[in-house]
Amino acid sequence: MEGVLPVAEEMKWLSANSQDSSGAKEKENVAAIHFLWKFGYPGLGRLLNEHIKVHDSLE
Known about the structure:
Number of helices: 3
Oligomer: single chain
Mean pLDDT: 68
Radius of gyration: 11 Å
Number of strands: 0
Order of helices and strands: HHH
């Protein structure tokens, strides 16, 4: 699929863009991605790609 990042890239993006300097938000994001990936959430890549597009448009 064009424009969809691999899960590892999505996790890297979430880590780099964490709002919480303590790292708690980053850990929460990674745990959520792992849960969705483990249970086969079919739209995970597309969902996160849309989130990235929205985030980038706000900057």
